[in-house]
Amino acid sequence: MLASMIRKTAALAATLFLPIAAHAGDAAEVNILGFSADGSLFAFEEYGVQDGSGFPYANRFYIDTATDTFVSGTPVRVRIEDETASLADARAQAKTQGQAVIADAVLGENRGYTAGWNAITELSADFSRMAVNPRPVFAPIDAPVEFRLEDVPLLAPSGCEGFGAIMGYRLTRIGTTDGDTTQLVHEDSAIPGSRGCPLGYGIGGLQIFYPPSGDPVFALMIAMRQIGFEGPDHRWLAVAGRL
Question: Which of 24, 124, 216, 226 has CA atoms 20 to 30 A from the CA of 12?
Fold first, then answer.
């Protein structure tokens, strides 16, 4: 109980004093792995060194683009609880487990196109909106693709009380038919346990893949700020579907 209270106090202090703690938070790197050849699956990895513990971690996410749900048996999560372990070791372990789902070679051959990207350090970016030409064809032959993201205050999950507003998100797609329509893509009604204590979200990027047959698919990458041990952490989510 005492350890839990100390952790909460430290995390809250880090959140309140962001100019000091900004150097201590853990910002995961993200790597787009790609799609299956038919576009039915999208995969990415995030990895880094956990703040506080110093443990290297690597997570892999495999998403069914038809249902926007995790493929059975995933995500793959590896954390090596040894400060002397390398990040490369954690990534290698996660990769080995991921090969049982789909080979990295297949994903790499069908990586798709990064139509837009905002680094989390980008001060001039609009993290609430992304509008792109879905592929590098000029003059464009496709309609623009646009998404908008809003934070949604929700009831704090157990263990997140006392940290201020805890956020879910609402994602909409704009102009799906005539340029004036709005389609709700996702809206949280509760915070999934896997997200920890999220403070807010921003659009990180948009990956688009045109399979040999069928409709193109997308994966919208979302950067999530959450309570960490020494400061706000950044982790990654993806929303996938057909265009």
Answer: 124
